[in-house]
Amino acid sequence: MKVIASHNGLVAAQRAFERMKAGVAPLDAVVEGVEIIEDDAEETTVGYGGIPNEEGVVELDAAVMDGKTHRGAGVAALQRVRHPSQVARLLMEQTNRVLLVGEGALKFARANGFVEENLLTEHARQVWLHWKRTRSQIDDWRAPLPESVDPKVKKWFDVHFRGPAGHGKIGTIHVSALSPSGDLACCTSTSGHAFKLPGRVGDSPILGAGLYADNDVGSCGSIGHGEANLENVTSFAAIELLRSGRSPQEAGLEMLRRIATKTRPDQLDAHGRPKFNLWLYVLAKDGTHAGVTMHGPKQYALAEEKGARLEKCVALYE
Ligand code: GLY
Fold first, then answer.
1. Whose CA is nearest to atom 5 of ligand 1?
2. What are phi and psi of 131, to 5 degrees?
């Protein structure tokens, strides 16, 4: 029995592990883990408290996949519901559909009794407003005086926009689980790129891109620059590499290498490496696992019988 998760998912991995230990199915366990992060207002890349789109509206994407039944579903650009992972699981369990977006996803959630609420926290609104006021000198907005900027807002930009352009506007939670009976399941949930175009959908709710599970082989999920994952169907391809005999680390690194070679020139730095970042988490049927990242160092979460901890990701570019 094992659970792996993105770096921000230590408590999620721990919860999923405990729930499986108590006999809960891996799909339910991973969703329960992800829910903790969706509820966390301090996590500004997932669920409640996520940074909004360019119009100041929080739009969430999430998907689940169950290895045992090989069924999965996703919801995208969902507004006003803090647990898109639960909505995706319900879509999988109660309908014959695999993907719902926007108003349709909200109507489905509403019909199933999900509570609607404002997901934009005061902090996220302040971050968004700061972005609006500072992004251009040829619009109506005037930049705030540096001394008037809330230190928490300044810190958010320092943390999320450090490094090469585009590195930091991203985040997400992914959790993959292997149950005591050898069944696999996974879940990915995100508020997507900060300040994204309204209606923009990333990789997280798309089976094969942001996550994929095949009970015969393994489970994989990703966080980071979703468009690169969408163009390379990364999670599916990583599982296919596992099927052909590669280890989780080899499969993950091979996919990052493939993405790097296909990256368009304007997204490459002076060394010819992608400016964006991408992390893959691969859990094989035999319990071996890896976290890989385009640029190091980073960590991923692991929960197993001897406890939960952060492990080092292997970087394609150190
Ligand atoms: N990987 C999350 C996103 O691009 O939306």
1. 192
2. -60, -45
